[in-house]
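Q: Predict the bound structure with iron/sulfur cluster.
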Amino acid sequence: MLWAVFISKLIFLQPDLMGNQKLNVMEQTVIREMLDERGFIDEPVGPEIKLVEEINRLKKEKNAVILSHYYVESELQDIADFVGDSLGLSQEAAKTKADLIVFVGVHFMAETAKIINPSKKVILPDLKAGCSLADSAPADKFAEFKAQYPDHKVISYINCTAELKTMTDVICTSANALKIVNSFPPEQKLIFAPDKNLGNYINSLTGRDMVLWDGACMVHEKYSLEKIIALMDQYPDAEFIAHPECEKPVLLIANYIGSTTALLNYVEKSPSKKFIVATESGILHQMNKACPNKIFIPAPSIDSTCGCNDCSYMKLNSLQKLYICLKNELPEITLSDEVIQKARIPIFRMLEISK
Ligand code: 13P
Ligand code: SF4
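A: Predicted complex:
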């Protein structure tokens, strides 16, 4: 394998692999192949490298900002300049003065940051950090679906590809979905994509009959109703709180439903001391930090041996990959001008409505 030979050369190279003149065309091609296949530059990092120190040094040197989602590992939340949910991270991306944006989350989030900041370089530690919701709605299939409803406007959950955003009237996140839907007059017919669970939940709140794309989050659809009920019996003093990406039967028994940030705010304000939490387990780090005297119990999923309430995509991020990515400024998000120009419109509409 060409990589094996090439890796040895990588060790001796200094930062900015693709930007400098040290690599010839063939070497750049090998790097691209490696990124396509592995999702990151798989270079060795010696034990003498103090990852946190080096990341902070490189960040300063490159005027970079690190934006981390609540679902990544605790150490990646702690090293971030801003940690938040999808809406908070988009808002932060829209106001950053940094030259380089390092998005520690998943691909659609980094793409959104790039669409908001076309002139800035946006990188993420692992290109393979995808999303089951985004994958559930391929642009060509969605175009066929949309064509069946010519008088409908499209609201897309931010968890979708840049291509899908180009076919959307307004983007929403779980934090502002109700507000975005309510910004349309009641008589306006709507398509909601790609999360059917969030769409169903908003339909139930508004009495609307939005047409739903059949997508779901592989983490939030796996919670076990029976096991949650058993936990509620075991801890009768605990409140059960859930993210609206969960399925309807789970939401029906929740004491509180909200986006990741809303759940975090809720546990801080609630007088309860115990919570069963149905969202990705990464948020427990912030909950424990904000409320060290409260107890947070992750809601169990159907198969308790599989760690299904961890998002395997979010968990592809690591301190080592973050270091390598910041050092080499790779992998980088690239999108065509056409996609950026079209996808900007529904994202900026969302940011405007959410002010
Ligand atoms: P929020 O960040 O809007 O809470 O959405 C959760 C999620 O699944 C992100 O991938
Ligand atoms: Fe996608 Fe679900 Fe993972 Fe969020 S938690 S990135 S919606 S798969």
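A: The chain is about 45% helix and 15% strand.
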